[in-house]
Amino acid sequence: MNSPETILVVDDEPQIRRFLRTSLAAQGYEVLEADTGQDALRQAVAGHPDLIVLDLGLPDMDGVDVLHRVREWSSVPVFVLSVRAREAEKVRALETGADDYITKPFGMAEFVARVKSALRRSGQGTAVSQPVFTVGALEVDLGRRVVRLNGREMRLSPKQYRLLQVLVANAGRVVTHHQLLHEVWGEAHTEDVQYLRIFVRKLRTWLEPDPTRPRYLLTELGVGYRLRSPDQFETC
Questions:
Q1: Is 203 in a helix, a strand, or coil?
Q2: Same domain, 99 and 115
């Protein structure tokens, strides 16, 4: 029998740790807990967690500093779970190496879906292990560079396809404006956020039944975009 995957929950609020421990254990995960940054770093080394849920407001050090220390030696998925909702805080955490940023309060169903998606990607070693990515009615054949919606082939420009390709490669994760602009248009255009918004708007007219209420391509306000993974799409 395979041993359960282990999740390290780092938060100085006992009630948050208790809530997450109960909810994650009900999903079959083993849960470790830490209430300080130093304890989190010790347990990250000793406990070999498969995923870390990290609060930013810790009593002894900032959560981003914990994340930076972890990223010096590990690629373990890290979810930031914080009351801090400012754009700068989210961007800083994501660009330090967080795999996702979830603002308190949060919905447990979507949180668990994101956890499952991240663990699946981590176990596969990549966000997409198969040449064909399918979510809902959307199918992206990465090998043949073909995109279909409801079985009908979509004709995308090279830039539109590259944008979708980057989002597919990071399905389920938040990708910052800076990261998308760098990957699709290059370093010289990393500040052209309005340009990116135009391309996302165009993609949504192709993908979404109602572009004003997107189900596939979500906006993480002030931070970037997230393409729902298949399990996240099922819970929406």
A1: helix
A2: yes
Which residue from 211, 193, 195 is spatially nearest to 203, judged by alpha carbons? 211
Helix axis angle, 87-96 relative to 177-185, nearest 10°?
A: 60
Q: Which tokens sit at 83?
A: 């009351």
136: left (phi over 0), alpha (psi -120 to 50) or beta: left
Question: Is the same domain home to 77 and 143?
Answer: no
Closest C-alpha among 55, 131, 53, 134 to residue 99: 53
Q: Does pLDDT of 128 surpass 50?
A: no
> What are the pLDDT digits (tens) for 134-172?
999 999 988 788 999 999 999 999 999 999 999 998 888
Q: Which of 115, 86, 116 is nearest to 100 (CA)?
A: 115
pLDDT digits (tens, 9 = 90+) for 59-84: 999 999 999 999 888 889 999 999 98
| Same structural domain, 105 and 180 | no
Q: Judging by DSSP bridges, how do beta strands 30-34 and 6-10 pair with one another? A: parallel
% of the chain surpassing 70 pLDDT: 95
Contact 9, 29 (CB under 8 A): no
Q: What range does the domain containing 186 cover?
A: 132-235
Question: CB neighbours (10 Å) of residue 33?
Answer: 18
Contact 48, 6 (CB under 8 A): yes
Q: In this structure, what token pair is assigned to residue 215? A: 């189900």
Closest CA to 53 of 82, 83, 73: 82
